[in-house]
Structures are given as C-alpha cells and as structure tokens.
Design goal:
- The complex is a heterotetramer of chains A (403), B (88), C (418) and D (195).
- With 403 residues, chain A is an alpha/beta fold.
- Chain A is 20% helix and 30% strand.
- In chain A, strands 12-9-8-15-14-13 form a 6-stranded mixed β-sheet.
- Chain B has 88 residues and is mainly beta.
- Chain B has a single domain (3-25, 38-83), classed as 2-Layer Sandwich (Folate-binding fold), CATH 3.30.2270.10.
- In chain B, strands 3-4-5-6 form a 4-stranded antiparallel β-sheet, with no helix packed on it. Chain B has a two-stranded antiparallel ribbon with strand order 1-2.
- Chain D has 195 residues and is mainly β.
- Chain D has 2 domains: 14-35 and 114-194, 2-Layer Sandwich (Gyrase A, domain 2); 37-110, Alpha-Beta Plaits (2-Layer Sandwich), CATH 3.30.70.
- Helices cover 13% and strands 36% of the residues of chain D.
- Chain D has 3 helices and 12 strands, in the order ββββββαββαβββαβ.
- Classes of the chains: A alpha/beta (403), B mainly beta (88), C alpha/beta (418), D mainly beta (195).
- At the A-C interface, β6 and α3 of A face α1 and α7 of C.
C-alpha cells in the first residue's frame, strides 16, 4: 500500500531509510524517524482501535504522550507489550502491532452493538441494575462484564528484558527541551550548575520543531540543534531524550523513565530496555509546554477529529497530512498556524473561529493566503462513523445563547 | 523520598533510615511506683499531630545513631534534626 | 424514592435520562438533631443508615468536611474478607460478610459485591503451619477457609511465579472462597441514597471546628455552617480522629499513617481472585474494568499527607513482580495515598467515651473498607442503646489500659519495631 | 583462621559483560579482598580518654565524620561517633590494639570473619555505585569513607584512590553473595574483568 498521505518533502524523518512494519497483520512502509502513528496515517490508516465501553471507532487524537485513543498491542523481540500508545512508539524494522478491544477485528467489531444500545447504558448504569435475581449477578452479569473488560493482553511469561535503575543528583533538573527548557539549561550550565535536561520525545526542541520562529538569525530548529550540541559537550550537563519525568516526590526527588531500547527492534546485550532514574534535584524547572485542550461538539471522538497542534506536528515533523480537506475549529490563534501549514502544502483548509472579530498578525497572514475563514462559527457535530466525512456547522447568534 | 540531615553524617536519603516514632514520649522513671495510667500513656497513647512532629529516626545504614527529627506530618518539611541527646 | 431496576433504566432511557431524581439532597443544617455523625465516609453513612433502619432514629445529620466518600472509602483496594484468627475480629467480620452479601438488594444500589475468593500465599513450611492454624480458627467461627497446597494454588493462579530458583517459592496458601471485592464508591453512594430517603441530612463542605461539652456531657458541635445541638454525637473520621480528639482534649491509642495503592491500565482478564504475597506485603486483584489493583504496606512514619512517597511504591511493585511476573509490562494509571488510624494493636475501636453522649469509631488500620457495614451496624447500635453490641464489645477504648488487646498481627502501628 | 570467603563459589576470574572490542585498560576491575584483619573500636559514652594520645600502627583515631586515616598497611574508617573500623593487612595487630584501647574505655570487636569485601577499580566505578546507592557519591573523594545502602544491603565504602578510581566496599558476610551479584550485574553494561 502506498503512502497517500505523505508529502513529497518536508518533515524531520529520514527519507533515505525505508522501514517495513505490520499492523493488524498487514504490511506497511514508513521511514526512519516515524512513530507508529505517523506511519499509519501516512498509509491512510485512521481506524486503530475501539473505545472501552461502547466500542466506538477510535483513531488518532494527539501526537504524543497525550494520546487517549491509539492504544495498541505490540510484539517486540518475542515479548508482548500491552497498551502501547502508537503516537509514542517509534517505528523500527519489523515492528508488529495490532488493535485492542475489538472482535473479530477493528473494522467489524461485534462489541460495537453497545454503541447502538448506548441509550440504555448511561454512565453508572450498572449501579441501577443487575440486582435481580440476586444469583444472576454472580453467575451471569458480572462474568459477562469482566470478559468484556480491558484493552491489551499481558503475557504471563517472564519478562526477559533487562531493566535498571540509577540514583543521580543535580543542581537543576529541566523537564522538556523546548525554547524555555533549552534556554534555562544553557544559562544554568554556563554558570557551572550541574544540569539534567530531560526530553520525553526522541527529538530535542519541543515547539521549536513545529513553529515558524527565528532566534537571532537562526531558525528555531537550527538554534535548538546548536544549543543541544553545546550542552552535550559540557561535562556538567546530562542531556537525555526518550526520557519522561513522571513523578515528583518529597524533598525534590523526581523519577524519570528513560526508554533506552524501546525504539530498537531488539535490545543490545547488557544494555537495559529501560532505566529508571531517581533524581534528587536542588531546583526543578518544569518546562514541558502545554497540551492542547479539545473543544466540545457532537461526535468529537470519531477518527479524523484530532487536536490541531497534533495535525501540525504530523505535518512539520513527519511530513504527513492527517487529511486532505481539513476543517480547523478554534477559539484562539493557534489553529491558524495549523491552517497555514496546510495551505503552504497545497491543501485548502477552512477555519471556524468562535470569535467575532479577532485581529492579529497571523490572522492577517491567513487572510493574505486566501484561507477560508468563518468567524463566529462553531462545529455542532462531526459526521461519519469510522472516519469523519463532514461536519454540521453553525453561526453563533449575537447574544451567544444559541446558534 | 525524604532527605534527612543526619547530625553526624550529613544529608542522606530515607532508605538509610528507620523510623522510631514520637520522640516526646517519656518513659516513666525507673524504681518508682508507676500507675497503670502512666504506663498506658507511655506505651499506647500518642498525640499524632497534624503539623510539627518531633520524632526519632535511626540512621541504621549509616552511623547507626538515633536522631531526633522535627518534621511536618502534612507537608513532610523537615525543620531541624538533632542528636538524640540534644533537647529540642 | 425512585426504585432502581432494569425497568426504570429502560423507562428513563426513552426520556433521555432527564427524569432521574437526585440520589441525595443538599440540605442546610437544622439547629438540632437527635444524633450527629461526624464524617461522611463509608462508616459514617452506614451508621446513619442503620440508625434509621434498625433503631428508627431518623433525626440524624452527617457532617462532612469535604464530600461524601472522599476519604478512605474512595481510597482503598476494595477487598472484603473475614479471614481473621481472633474471635472478636472473625465474628465481627463474618457478620459484616452477611451484610455485604445482601447489600445490593438492601440498598437497591448495585455495589458489585464480588466473592472472587482471596488467597494468602505461603512461602515456607512454617507459614503453612501458621495458615492452617488460622484456617482452623476461622472454621470454628463458621468462616470458610481452605488450605491449598502448591499444586492447588497453581491450578487457580497459574500466572504466579512457579518457576525454579525463585527467591520466595510458593508452598501453598490459605483461601477464603467467599471473600472478594466490591465497588467502593457505590458503597458510599448506596448508603447515602438510602439514608437520605429515610430523613438523614447529609451536610457536605461543613467542617467541625469545636465541641460543646459541659459537666462531662456533649451538647453539640460548632461548625463552619454554625452551631448544631445534639445529645449524641458519633465520631467516624478515621484518619483524622486525632485532629478532632485534640479539640476534645483526648489522647488516643492511635497514630495517623499513610497507605498507598495503585492501579494499572486495564488489561484483558488474567486474574480472577484476590491474592496476597506471603513473604512481604503486597496484594493484588483485577477489577471488573480490567485494571490491576495493588497495594502494600504503610509508608512507615506518621503522615497526614494523603499522597504517597516513593520507597513504599518501589517496594510494593518489586514484590508484585516477584509474585506475578506479568505485572512488569503494565503501566500505572493512578497511584494514591490514604491516611488511616493505626491503633496500637491493629484492631479498631467502637465504643463510648468518658464524655456522655460522645461515641468513638476509629482505629481501622488497613481494614476499614470491608468493615463498613458491620462497623455502621454496631456503631448505630452502640449509639442508639448507649452500650456496645456484643459484636463490638471487644473493640473497647480502654482495652489498652486493661491489657485486653486484640493483636491479630501482633504489630499494630509499630511496624517500625520489627 | 580459615581463609574461605563468602564469595568463594561465585567470584571467578575472567572477562564479563560488555567487554568485547574494548581496551582492557578501560574495563572495570573487580576483585575480592581476603585475609584482612578487621576490628571495630568503640569508645564508651562515659569514657573521657583523649583519643589524640593513642597510637595504633602509628595512626591516630580521628573523630571526624566520613574520614579515613591510613598508612600502607592499615586504614581506620570513621564508622559513627566514637566508632571506628580498623582494617589492616597486619593480622597480628589485635594484641597491640588491646593494649592501647583498654577495655575500661573501649569495646573492641574482631570482625575479620564477618565481612565480605569487594574492590572495584576503573573509570565507571561511580556509575556502578549510582545504580544501587542513594548516596551523592560524586561528592566523595579518596580518603573518604561512608556507610550507606546498595539495593537494600547496608555497605561501607572506603575510597582508596581517585587516580585511578578505586573503591573498597564492605558488607556483612551473609549478604556477600547477593551484594556481589548486585555489583557485577550493574557492571555488565560497562564490561568488567574479575581478578
């Protein structure tokens, strides 16, 4: 299958190295530097799983750690990994993954009947029923509920991989290598502080990789590369990518999970798969950036509805279009950045902005690019089942009480 | 993980220490009549305050000394540490 | 009160679920009640329910500083059991088991009581002997207990580590087949809904700031929502008992400690029972949703923090993987800490106090959730009759003074002594 | 005195871990130290003797935390207030110790048979220690000693030298095998040579 949604150029992937992988038994190709998510989207795969209760179709919603939907079961090095986020898993040669919580398959899922009976299963319905006759709870109702539970399946084999832990001390721990993280690390390191810079993703730079910014006379990305190279050469600095700081405990003890081999087909001998760091820091800077919050409208969970920041990230980092007829629904300027990126790549987006008369440079830029902008407009509901195909939109009334 | 300043060895992590409870409890004096109430007080009753708490810890994997630690039981902030022989 | 059933569910589905009544009201406090229960956790709600149901006392208020079910009933590992050796604990808990078995029907609220069986693993011959003794004591008190050998355990939980050369080989285990789990929040909500329907006022976001005591008699309480009079007041605030005791100039044989638990992301069904590790302190079950629910020992020092510290979590998960290697690949979804009253012998206190009209329910240590119905039932009896029921007579406040300790574990709060 | 060590069954010489294609000079060297004379000297609380006047093997006790006084044969490690561990190649030092440290003022305990000792040498020594010990090891230099834990096992560290890095680690004999496993496992990543 060819990559219909991959742009001819652009992105930070290594186009000279093609990688083959399997999803739900089918073979696809991606490039070095892809995540499983970006490679699947490039191949036009938008349906990756089913929701927990109603078995509604699930696609990709984010592009990183914030992904709520794209949960897959992985096979790596003859080991099973349940509940892996496709947006976090880097692609490697021979990767095998499959959808979870669907039977017989993700495309045709018997459990989806729950979706059509959803009216009878409102939140917390189980507290109100299954009480009569008494023995049925034990013998029938609960066993059925239990059987339907869970996403991935855990292996009962011994985990043969190697895991290590390590204690470390530092003057300053910085979580996130975006512009503020890098600038802080650089300033502290130059003054002799012992610095640990942790980046959750494989690439350093954070928002510098997806935003059109310049620092001095360099692009954001060039600046990030320069600073990282310099930081790496300093003896008082530890720079770690694929390292997620996930716990902040008493007396400035932080815990970081370093994924050393998860992006490789196989761990090297004697090298751990993951390493847990216990870091005692004198000071901590949390510069992890922000996660975009979704807007609320009907069916905002169907595949193809996603965060606009994620759409931008797939474009800028992976050279992948999440769709060819994008509708950007926003209540602030950030949506315009995504729309402009689409436009630059020959795709015509439509922007719906809830605001009445917003004014800023980027809006002007969008207008100059002849992007279709509808102000005071909202999405009422997305349409489609396994993939979004249209949306009901409406203009907000003057008193904002109806549309 | 708590970071406790041992008055002998300096700042060390919690896993070198072992907890010893309320340091303000006084054992009834030896060789004197002790009422049941006093024994009850000493053996079982504890104030267990929310806030500042003077407590004993032993630096068991360090200098093996008992020390006193004044710690907030809500925030875990440690205000001071003393040798066991020192009065707060 | 609206009855919950599959029919009411279907009926309401056609009205888009807009016609459901509120499950409990949000009243402003009256100036006086017959009984005030301080603490809107499981025990407080159950006490109010049984006061109304068993003793016909309905002029009752529950005063809760936060929200109902926000304390330990919302921070536990949902285990329900009565596998105790001592008579006091065994008979009390088994009485509770019977209340659990009928709770969903009694409350007309499905609390998902699920008797999946609990297995305590033994890792040495000595431990097998200890378990056979405990099992015999249980049977003498009418509680089901089965001693399992290694092969029998393997048949039930094949995914445990039965490989060669493990540090703690499984020799066998003690099983209570009728023990299990329940949906913790539902317990609080079910009791709240029924208590409310019988006239109990559930007053949330109301902090008790002081007590009116005169000539050794309780007269009422002062709260952030004004003064409220009552001749009888029950304290049901395990975890924070010492804070209120201080306002009453009482010093109690309890310390407040912190216990942590955690759940993994949901996985397909793999573990049907509740299993405890015998060579350390770890227990595990799988929820109806598929999450692995795990817990361990206290953080080890006095704490009101309601958040856990790292060393205990490390410990818990290390033991967990030693018992069930499959846990190693799971990601934790949530970890949490709850504060609890650790009594000096590990058993609770349900008793009158030296202040007339003031009743105490505290010291639940790790075992408060499963005790919810029995605790509420006996505490309601103690308050209504002004004397303990024979089931909770052993849980007296002065037992530490008289030497009648119930040291089931032989440790109480002082885990640090071992 | 028998010289059978707790590590006899597991300490085998050879190359291990990630040693291939590496310069032997850069590998960690792990050896077992045997046949040392180890004695604990504790001054009683009520003793008023000035330790400055006491000499053992030409060394004076020093009541300063985390320090070692040493000569070629003997090292005296601070082990707590008024508490020292004396480690010596001279196996006949006990008589001299008992004459100098009178039993009215000192408790002297022979620990020669109760410790397992591992010595590690190499650039990555600090990294190996970080994999199990919560101590801020980078702060310690040659001439320092410290008691701490390593993966739950109580240990005593004696920093012999900084150029090259040599650290001697003592643990209770009964934990010797577990500790040896812990240390060698942590060294696999770097490659090591057992002497």
């Amino acid at each position: 299958m060819s990559e219909h949604f991959r742009l001819d150029k652009g992105g930070l992937i290594n186009r000279s190295k093609k990688i083959s992988f399997k999803f739900n038994g089918k073979k696809y190709f991606g490039y070095e530097g892809d995540t499983l998510a970006s490679a699947l989207i490039a191949n036009g795969v938008h349906l990756v799983g089913r929701s927990f209760k109603y078995h509604r179709p699930r696609g990709f919603f984010g592009a990183g750690v914030d992904e709520p939907y794209a949960i897959v079961q992985m096979n790596r090095n003859n080991e099973v990994d349940p509940n892996v986020r496709a947006t976090e898993q880097e692609l490697f040669e021979g990767l095998e993954a499959k959808s979870v919580n669907c039977w017989p398959n993700v495309d045709f899922d018997i459990g989806a009947i729950n979706n059509f009976l959803g009216k009878f299963f409102p939140a917390g319905f189980y507290y109100k029923t299954f009480m009569w006759p008494k023995s049925f709870w034990y013998k029938i109702y609960e066993p059925i509920i239990r059987k339907a539970a869970g996403f991935g399946a855990a292996s009962i084999k011994h985990d043969k991989e190697r895991y290590e832990h390590k204690y470390e001390y530092c003057d300053l721990l910085i979580t996130g290598s975006g512009p503020s993280g890098l600038a802080s690390a650089y300033a502290a390191a130059q003054n002799g502080a012992k610095v640990i810079l942790a980046e959750d993703k494989s690439r350093f730079g954070g928002s510098l990789l997806t935003s059109e910014v310049t620092i001095g006379n360099q692009s954001g990305q060039e600046w990030a590369e320069k600073i990282i190279t310099e930081l790496k050469s300093m003896p008082n600095v530890v720079v770690k990518n694929r390292s997620q700081v996930f716990g902040y405990y008493d007396h400035n003890m932080l815990v970081m999970s370093e994924r050393i081999s998860d992006h490789l087909p196989k761990s090297e001998k004697y090298i751990p798969k993951q390493r847990l760091w216990y870091i005692r820091a004198k000071e901590v800077i949390i510069s992890s950036g922000s996660i975009e919050r979704p807007l609320v409208f009907g069916n905002n969970d169907i595949p193809g509805v996603m965060l606009s920041s994620a759409a931008k990230e797939y474009l800028k980092i992976y050279g992948v279009l999440v769709g060819k007829k994008p509708l950007v629904f926003t209540n602030n300027d950030s949506g315009y950045e995504t729309a402009i990126e689409f436009k630059k790549n020959g795709i015509d987006p439509i922007i719906l902005d809830t605001r009445k008369d917003p004014n800023s440079e980027i809006i002007k830029e969008a207008k100059d690019l002849n992007i279709n902008i509808k102000l005071s407009y909202v999405v009422v509901a997305a349409k489609g089942y396994k993939k979004v195909n249209s949306a009901d939109i409406a203009k907000i009334s003057e008193d904002k009480k109806k549309y | 993980m708590l970071h406790i300043k041992c008055p002998h060895c300096g700042l060390r992590s919690q896993n070198e220490f072992s907890y010893g409870g309320d340091a303000t409890v006084k054992r009834p004096e030896l060789n004197k009549d002790v009422s049941d109430k006093d024994w009850d007080n000493f053996v079982y009753l504890r104030k267990s305050p929310r806030g500042k708490h003077l407590e004993l810890w032993q630096h068991i994997s360090g200098c093996r000394q008992w020390i006193k630690v004044e710690r907030d039981t809500l925030t875990h902030e440690i205000f001071k540490t003393l040798k066991a022989s020192e009065e707060a | 009160m609206q009855k919950y059933s599959v029919f009411s569910l279907i009926k309401n589905a056609f009205k888009d679920h807009k016609d459901w009544e509120v499950a409990w009201k949000d009243p402003t406090p009256k100036t006086e009640y017959d009984v005030i229960i301080i603490g809107g956790g499981g025990h407080g709600l159950a006490t109010a329910y049984y006061l109304a149901k068993e003793h016909n006392i309905t002029k009752v208020a529950i005063i809760e500083k936060g929200w109902i079910g926000g304390g330990n009933v919302g921070r536990n590992t949902t285990i329900i059991r009565s596998n105790y050796m001592h008579d006091e604990n065994g008979l009390f808990s088994e009485f509770g088991m019977n209340l659990w078995r009928n709770m969903s029907q009694d409350l007309n609220f499905n609390v998902m009581f699920s008797p999946r069986g609990i297995i305590n693993l033994a890792h040495s011959d000595a431990q097998m002997n200890v378990y056979s003794r405990r099992g015999n004591s249980m049977r003498l008190n009418g509680i089901d207990a089965v001693l399992l050998n290694r092969d029998e355990v393997r048949e039930i939980i094949p995914m445990a580590d039965f490989s060669e050369n493990v540090r703690f080989p499984i020799f066998g285990g003690l099983m209570q087949p009728s023990a299990g789990t329940a949906r913790h929040d539902a317990v609080a909500w079910g009791y709240a809904r029924q208590a409310d329907s019988m006239g109990v006022d559930i007053i949330q976001n109301c902090e008790v700031t002081g007590f009116d005591v005169s000539n050794g008699k309780i007269l009422g309480i002062r709260t952030s929502k004004g003064e409220i009079k009552a001749k009888k007041i029950g304290l049901c605030v395990a975890g924070s008992t010492n804070i209120l005791a201080e306002k009453l100039n009482m010093t109690l044989p309890i310390e407040t400690h912190l216990l942590q638990a955690c759940v993994s992301e949901p996985i397909k069904p793999i573990l049907d029972n509740v299993v405890t590790f015998g060579a350390g302190h770890f227990y595990c079950s799988q929820s109806d949703k598929g999450e692995m629910v795990m817990g361990g020992d206290l953080d080890g020092y006095n704490s009101y923090a309601q958040r856990g510290n790292l060393p205990t979590l490390q410990h818990v998960l290390t033991e967990g993987i030693a018992m069930f290697p499959f846990l190693s690949k799971l990601k934790m979804l949530r970890t949490w800490g709850g504060i609890m009253d650790m009594s000096m012998d590990g058993s609770p206190i349900i008793d009158k106090t030296h202040i007339e009209g003031l009743y105490l329910n505290c010291g639940w240590c790790y075992g408060g959730f499963k005790a919810t119905p029995a605790s509420g039932w006996t505490f309601a009896h103690t308050i209504a009759q002004d004397r303990p029921h024979e089931l909770n007579a052993g849980y007296s406040l002065n037992r530490f003074n008289t030497g009648h300790l119930i040291d089931e574990k032989g440790l109480g709060t002082k885990t640090w002594i071992s | 005195m028998t010289s059978l060590s707790a590590l006899n069954h597991i300490h085998k010489s050879g190359f291990f871990g990630n040693y291939e294609n590496k310069n032997e000079e850069n590998l960690l060297k792990i050896s077992e130290i045997k046949n040392f004379f180890i004695v604990q000297i504790v001054q009683y609380k009520n003793s008023s003797i000035l330790i400055d006047n006491l000499n053992i093997d030409n060394l004076k006790l020093k009541n300063q935390p985390l320090t070692v006084v040493s000569n070629n044969d003997t090292r005296i490690l601070w082990n707590g207030p008024k508490n020292w561990i004396l480690v010596s190649k001279k196996k006949d030092l006990l008589d001299e110790i008992l004459t100098v440290f009178k039993e009215t003022d000192f408790a002297v305990t022979d620990l020669s048979h109760s410790r397992s000792i591992i010595e590690i040498e190499g650039n990555m020594v600090y990294e190996v220690l970080k994999k199990g010990s919560p101590l801020d090891i980078s702060k310690l230099k040659s001439g320092d000693s410290a008691n701490t834990v390593y993966n739950g096992i109580t240990i005593t560290l004696d920093f012999i030298s900084n150029k090259p890095n040599i650290i001697r680690i003592f643990c209770l004999r009964s934990f010797g095998e577990s500790f040896y496993h812990s240390i060698t496992d942590a060294s696999l990543e770097f490659g090591y040579k057992c002497l």
